Known about the structure:
Elements (H helix, E strand, L loop, with lengths): L2 H13 L9 H14 L4 E8 L5 E7 L12 E6 L7 H16 L4 H9 L1 E5 L4 H6 L36 H12 L2 E8 L2 E6 L20 H13 L20 E3 H4 L6 H8 L3 E8 L9 H17 L5 E6 L10 E4 L15 E4 L4 E8 L5 E8 L9 E2 L2 E2 L7 H5 L23 H10 L5
Parallel strand pairs: 3-4, 3-5, 5-8, 6-7, 9-14, 9-15
Antiparallel strand pairs: 1-2, 2-4, 6-8, 9-11, 10-12, 12-13
Amino acid sequence: MDFTRLWLGLLLPWVAALDFRYHHQEEMEEFLKSVAQNYSSIAHLHSVGKSVKGRNLWVLVVGQYPKEHRVGIPEFKYVANMHGDETVGREMLLHLIDYLVTNHGKDTEITKLINNTRIHIMPSMNPDGFESVKKPDCFYNSGRSNSNDYDLNRNFPDAFEYNNVSRQPETLAIMKWLKTETFVLSANLHGGALVASYPFDNGVQATGALLSRSVTPDDDVFQHLAYTYASRNPNMVKGDQCKNKMNFPNGITNGYAWYPLQGGMQDYNYIWAQCFEITLELSCCKYPREEKLPYFWNDNKASLIEYIKQVHLGIKGQVFDQNRNPLPNVIVEVQDRKHICPFRTNKFGEYYLLLLPGSYTINVTVPGHDSHLTKVVIPEKSQDFSALKKDFLFPSQRKLDSILVSHPSCPMIPLYKTMPSHSAATKPSLFLFSLTLLHIFFK
Ligand SMILES: *[C@@H]1O[C@H](CO)[C@@H](O)[C@H](O)[C@H]1NC(C)=O
Ligand SMILES: *[C@@H]1O[C@H](CO)[C@@H](O)[C@H](O)[C@H]1NC(C)=O
Ligand SMILES: *[C@@H]1O[C@H](CO)[C@@H](O)[C@H](O)[C@H]1NC(C)=O
Ligand SMILES: *[C@@H]1O[C@H](CO)[C@@H](O)[C@H](O)[C@H]1NC(C)=O
Ligand SMILES: [Zn+2]
């Protein structure tokens, strides 16, 4: 009697719940629904809106409390397939879901990760585009756009110039979703190249565009995030695996330095939703044959998990008044890292700041009142699935009622417009031009 085979025979139907092939909308729905049903204590499925053709934009949430936010547990998200013809990310996220739920309670790391993080997974932001592509094809395809022919990664408000496009249902659904949660960290998954690209995707002189790049005040954190992903993907980190395409040292790049774009999702997340998002290009071929999917999973599994853990970088906590009531809309930022739209506490008085180890001065400001500066040291050794915890008691005795009702204002206009503007000559336009000619679009 071969016990190994007997055991494998018993285990396989459970372990191999998801096969390596492309799952179209109906099969994907079936899978997500059965995960939500079989693992209802840690998984919750909901739709955040519909595509032009009425397909649901599904989000599966995995966490100890999947249905709602709990104070201290950071919100993380992955979004794939916003370009319908870039398909690897979509299947990777289905396998990630499978991996997370089947390893909960078995693998210590995964159990702790799920216990301390709320993980939102949207396998397809553009289901219409995906369904419109009939067969695998490595190159640009009309399925990139939604069914009104809009490129969704050019469809968001832009902080640097007017993006006067008709906002699409898929884009509006994401914008609405971002308002319902305090997302801290995110990645959106693409294909057609092999690189981890970080904000900004657009820029002005003030963000470094004269030097053909455009960086945020959190550039050190973004480089770390991108490298965390790239360094665990054995092909991405080499930086030169796609033939006839650009080389990326360490498998990472600043988005603008690669090629500038307007109305992208990652810049929108960072500027208007306080959420650090990067763009992951997972495959040289946009829509590879399904036989390749096991190899992509093998290359991306460790990166996908390790990237989620980064939501626990830095510092988090709550801001209270003298009576320990949580204070919303309080500006909590690191000195010398001011965001153009200041990061504010949510309705639970919570803040989350992603920071690398080091010394920082935290500036807590109740609008209309004095600022409060505190020195903190983020330790070198990472905590056990938690950022450093620090609450702030705001000493003001004055009445703070007004801030409880005032909504944080961050207008949907080009916020950097007043700063020194674009100089066409500094855009890496030659490369952009050649890309346009070849009809090669990735992010
Ligand atoms: C859910 O459970 C049913 C019944 O045991 C099983 O057939 C199905 O494969 C499971 N689905 C997942 C995604 O685990
Ligand atoms: C999960 O978190 C709870 C507290 O929220 C804790 O009691 C429990 O020990 C944790 N489990 C694991 C495996 O970390
Ligand atoms: C946007 O486009 C519409 C229609 O073309 C036009 O009426 C409007 O003035 C434009 N707005 C800006 C700010 O350019
Ligand atoms: C603290 O933040 C507030 C609000 O953004 C700002 O007005 C103030 O200048 C900051 N203080 C310091 C010392 O940076
Ligand atoms: Zn793309």
